[in-house]
Design goal:
Layout (H helix, E strand, L loop, with lengths): L2 H11 L3 E4 L1 H16 L5 E6 L6 H9 L3 E4 L2 H10 L6 E3 L6 H9 L3 E4 L2 H13 L5 E8 L12 E2 L3 H12 L3 E7 L10 H15 L5 E3 L10 H4 L9 H5 L3 H7 L5 E4 L3 H4 L3 E13 L2 E7 L2 H4 L8 E4 L6 E9 L8 E10 L4 E4 L20 E3 L6 E4 L4 H5 L5
Parallel strand pairs: 1-17, 2-3, 2-10, 3-4, 4-5, 5-6, 6-7, 6-8, 8-9, 9-10, 12-14
Antiparallel strand pairs: 1-11, 11-12, 11-16, 13-16, 14-15, 17-18
The protein binds pyridoxal-5'-phosphate.
Pyridoxal-5'-phosphate binds next to helix 12.
Length: 398
Amino acid sequence: MRKETIERLKKEYGDAFYLLNSKQFRSNYLELKDAFSSVYPSFNIAYSYKTNYTPKLCRIVNELGGYAEVVSEMELELALRIGVKPENIIWNGPVKNPREVERFLRLGGTVNVDNADELDLIKSIVERYPKEKFGLGIRVNYDVDDGVVSRFGFDVLGDDFKECCAYVRRTPNVELAVLQCHFAKRNAEYWPARAKGMVDLIDRIGVIPKKVDLGGGIFGKMADELKAQFSVNVPEYQAYADTVKVFADRFGNQGPELIIEPGSALVGDCMQFVGTVKSIKSVRGKWFASVLGSQQNVSMSGVNPPIGIVHMGGKTKEYKTIDLVGFTCIEGDVLYRGYRGELAIGDAVVISNCGSYSIVMKPPFILPNFPVLDISEGKTELIKRGETYDDLFHTFVY
Ligand SMILES: Cc1ncc(COP(=O)(O)O)c(C=O)c1O
């Protein structure tokens, strides 16, 4: 980041803001799509809205022919407002509003049921509209040896799942639209079991769904300094893509469409946060720089994010170790531990890899959120204005 650019943006938007890189997002999408398509051509991406539902990003996915993966009626509403066709939306999530489920199903969308009670809801809807066709999605849950007993989806060895499959077989106006799974751990080593688990399941139930959805859980791109802070290997896209060869081997080019639901893999490296050093002090020999910016803005904890300091003209001093701390009153609100280098009040702190679970998870705590700008395409585009106090206060009854 150049000092002149930051100066210009600060003048117009204040001392803290996000920079969205939509160009990088587009390029990540195409690269990830190519990686999987090279192994199994009938492939598509369903972007995980919850990770970062900035409309500009969701629109890019839609333009590029990708699907929307939503997990609430709120995200569903956003996808529809953006103009995503209902048949290109996949609705996951453990709790869904029944009225919205009915509306969405009748529009031709796919709902992935999570449990037997939801299946009962679908049955009652289908029964009421015997002349209409419905696509049923089922979220499944099996062991991939990752040490997690997930709470999501149907246990593939349980009676409820058996009933799901039997229901599809005996109901003429219902087809198996999607078999979906998701495993949160992003280690590529669990992906072969994930992919093979789906192929084995299809063979066992004897029904080939229209789409097989392997979920998210793919690491995004990051600098080596961030990679080194993970206890597991952070692989390239292709390492995940190679694991779906089992679909090509089993189905050739006659198989179901294969989908993944990446969030972080697409958007993680597509946002930076820029904050400003407001004060520097020492307490019992320990140095702190207070920043307009917080861990709440970047949603990264337990690691030191990739950071750049842009000196803005103040008199700098060399620090052997200084913690860059946030504007909240939480002791643990540390943006970066043990920074070493020159620093001055007024310097800009540029934090990278802030694209996933950041702006969508920023609570209205201490300060409203800062604006989001996109400068990746040559001009400065305001993506989200800074929140005002009224944005946060107006739902209270005074
Ligand atoms: C069902 C589902 N799909 C996709 C994702 C996106 O995962 P990631 O950010 O690891 O790509 C999540 C994240 O929790 C999820 O729960």
